[in-house]
Amino acid sequence: MDHNQRPAFDQGSRHISVIAPARLHMGFVDLSGDLGRRFGGLGLTLAGIHTRLRVWKSAQISGAGPSATRAKVCAKTLLEGLGIQEGVHVEVAEAIPEHVGLGSGTQMALAVSSAIANLFRLNIDLQTLAGLMQRGVRSGIGLGAFEHGGFIVDGGRGDKTIVPPVLCHARFPDRWHLLLVFDEALQGLSGVPEVSAFKKLSPMDPPLSAHLCRLLLMQVLPALAEEDFERFSAGITTIQDIVGDYFARFQGGRYTSPRVAEVLDWLKGKERVAGLGQSSWGPTGFAVIEDEARAQRLLEFARARWGAPLRFMVCQAQNTGAEIWTEEGRSQQRNLTAKSA
Known about the structure:
This protein is an alpha+beta fold. It has two domains: about 1-170 and about 315-335, 2-Layer Sandwich (Ribosomal Protein S5, domain 2), CATH 3.30.230; about 175-315, GHMP kinase, C-terminal domain (Alpha-Beta Plaits, 2-Layer Sandwich), CATH 3.30.70. About 35% of the residues lie in helices and about 25% in strands. Strands 1, 2, 3, 4, 5, 6, 11 and 12 form an eight-stranded mixed sheet that branches. Strands 8-9-7-10 form a four-stranded antiparallel sheet. The chain is globular and about 60 Å long. It starts with 13 loop residues before the first strand and ends in a 5-residue tail after the last strand.
């Protein structure tokens, strides 16, 4: 059988469904490592962009739908890691776009592994699953988005770290919106080139890392708690500018896409948008907008001014994590915990 074809599905059989949200990675705060930990990051869970799939037992490992090859690799990795000699079929209805800075790999890995763990009724916590799936090598933001949603801060990697710990997850105000800028002609670094880039990075000067940590702790997080839009936005942009310049030689400048950079420059200059940057290696750019009405106006202006390969979207943050549920025949049990299977 072609592994990309959907095997016959018994409507009376048990299957697990998962919806996993995308995320923005808004930067690292300690690339020095002089305190024994490296990286540490901040990010935001997104509504409206997600990976949606369901898994059921099958004679072999198979998959169908967008990013099916990646889904099958995830299933094979977990089943072999757990010593399970059975197969599963992964039917992907929607997938986060790959290699554009939205966390597609981690969300697919966590969605597939959580589904399989629930399918086989295994009591495995999410951190263990992430370790088995080799996710969270540098960042815990994807794990935090899957587990909690909202605005996430992780504690980076130390010499005993399996997955970077989530230190903070905070609610993002419903009225604040995001304008996303996609360049569909480019992809960000991933795989071997990404690993190579991190190996070649020089350690960040400790005073600069200290400044980034102070910006996060004493500006961004308090402003978020008090819903102080201007201070939050200014803090995000300062962190983004510093980190973007630090990675510039690997991505061709502060931003991976010159086209996205042009839009962000327009937003910052003419439109006076205070909070903006690039997610992870990009090329996806983002701007934090104070309300939906202004976000929609900027969306219309941007679409009128720029065409393909640029694409624009307005969305909110998602203040909840992944949704996992089981269906047996016609019965459904929704909201199985994303924290453990």
